[in-house]
Amino acid sequence: MLKWRVRSVFGAVLVIMVALGVTGGVQAQQTSALGAEGLSVTVYNEDLGLVKDLRRIHLDSGRTEVSITNVAAKIDPTSVHFRSLSNSAAFVLEQNFEFDLVSQNRLLEKYLGQEIELVDDSGVAKRVTLMSYQGGGLVVLDSGNVLIDPPGRVRLPKLPEGLITRPTLKWLVESPNSGTHLVEVTYLTRGLTWQADYVGVYDDSGKLDLNGWVTLENNSGTTFENASLQLVAGDVNLVKDNLAKNMEMAIQTRSLQAPQPQFEEESLFEYHLYTLDRKTTLRDRQIKQVGLLNANNARAEKVYVVENSIWTTGDAPVQVMLET
User: How far is CA 164 from CA 51, 70, 175, 324, in A?
Assistant: First the structure.
């Protein structure tokens, strides 16, 4: 078995334009997404993904506060774009990304200077004032006495305001009428990447078996269930314009390895985008491999390469490469 190098040239350009928000001053009503309608993820090989999420939500006439959970924790909040596909007259006044997630440290931080309960093994609770915490140890005030690392389990009366269990996007939306809307939410997130891996077996008869895999890694902080998947190769350039509202994207790609039937090639301008012909699930903190190509009994020849120049000193190494 021999190793060889596969060299490809790719190019990609992504343009993002983000606007200044407009705020309103009336009381908003709270609503949540009624259900997911479709999800697509475009993964770049530069630790970047573009997510398009279709949801059905209810909007009241006037101003309504909308919230959506199950979004990526590593989202770029400035790239979020919300629009109603059901009624173009509905528009966003404000949008917020809330990521103050519940954790032991955040809970204790919220209760500094306040009363908490310490519960002993028999279930008896004692009220003390939390003065400090560090590295799992507590400093509390109990009837004028300072106790360091007191025994007992900490019990808090309620979840402090502002803490949430999952990253959440919120919008204040103005709608001319009440009803169910199909809305599209688009955003960029870090934590998504892919690369092509190849495994080849070559024998002295000149035959080569080559398998190609797309290796995807999801560290975005959320799972993308039953999503349409697209891949783009190349360097990505992000440009932000503070005076624009809409997000536009131009993708330029070249010379992607020929896929097997799982991936379908699609022209995009004069370039190419590759789409998986079925839906798949990208779980958080998961590495997934999808078959890219499969070539058996391909003819290949060994090629000996010597890289030499007038600046080379000494004996140049001989490289053994395969040519198909």
Answer: 22, 12, 27, 56
